[in-house]
Design goal:
The chain has one domain. Helix content is 78%, strand content 0%. The chain has 12 helices and no strands. The chain is globular.
């Protein structure tokens, strides 16, 4: 049991040191959601007033509505960023060195997911702290209650990123693939507008949004921040986390880079 703990601690420490050495990651992760919160929300406030919807008990400002979605946006981008580091490690061969450990491959990859998720949580709570001073103030207990939901969503998106990275053979292809995934997932969700507004515009577009895994992640965090439970979102997130993790472990091949160089 001690060897498992030491392995997990080592992988988490490695990711933490990498994060500390790349301080720009921290600030760039905050710039995107803060732009939406401060700049875009000011322009969209009048056009996108929010009526009383769950989990809110009264009318809310647009800024209040989008904060949970922006927190999940940080997790989404970090999950994809973590998959970039996986591609880089595979290219440089360090991942193959790690896999020479006698520990199961599934545990090593799960440790990588946990490390990425923990780093993401630090950035999310930094954003929530800034939003608090900006005037978006969920219940204090909600910030604590949201921790398990945020961790689950971080693991879900990290597992998805790992699964996608398994199909990327070259670093040069990473940006195109990730942009094709990130932006549709984010905009086709309830992160920036309630789904009933999307339904008013288009029925088929509404159903695409409703089936989007990221939409369930946003709703899980939104309800948790206001001390509510979203059972459907919780079941979807748990199920997809397990599914993506299993597929990522089964499809992971550290020899991809070696085979490409040999060719």
């Amino acid at each position: 049991m001690i060897i498992y703990w030491e392995c997990l601690r080592g992988i988490v420490l490695r990711e933490w040191l990498r994060f500390v050495q790349q301080r720009s990651r921290f600030f760039s992760a905050l710039v995107r959601p803060l732009l939406w919160l401060v700049v875009f929300a000011a322009g969209f406030r009048a056009a996108l007033g929010i009526a009383i919807i769950e989990p809110y008990d009264t009318y809310i400002t647009y800024e209040t509505y989008i904060v949970p979605g922006l927190a999940c946006m940080i997790l989404l981008f970090n999950g994809m960023q973590g998959s970039l580091s996986m591609v880089y490690d595979r290219e440089m061969g360090s991942m193959r060195v790690l896999l020479t450990s006698p520990l199961p491959r599934s545990f090593l990859l799960a440790s990588k997911l946990v490390a990425t998720a923990l780093i993401s949580l630090l950035q999310v709570y930094a954003f929530l702290a800034i939003a608090w001073f900006y005037g978006v103030q969920p219940p204090p207990l909600g910030l604590i209650a949201a921790l398990p939901a945020l961790l689950l969503v971080a693991l879900l998106l990290s597992a998805l990123g790992l699964l996608l990275s398994n199909g990327i053979r070259q670093l040069e292809n990473f940006a195109g693939v990730m942009n094709f995934v990130i932006f549709p997932m984010f905009f086709l969700s309830s992160a920036l507008y309630p789904l009933w507004k999307m339904r008013e515009a288009s029925e088929w577009l509404y159903w695409i949004c409703a089936l989007n895994p990221f939409n369930h992640a946003v709703e899980l965090v939104r309800h948790a921040l206001y001390l509510r439970l979203a059972p459907t979102a919780l079941m979807v997130c748990v199920g997809l986390t397990l599914l993506f993790s299993l597929l990522a472990v089964l499809s992971f091949n550290p020899q991809h880079a070696a085979l490409r160089r040999a060719a």
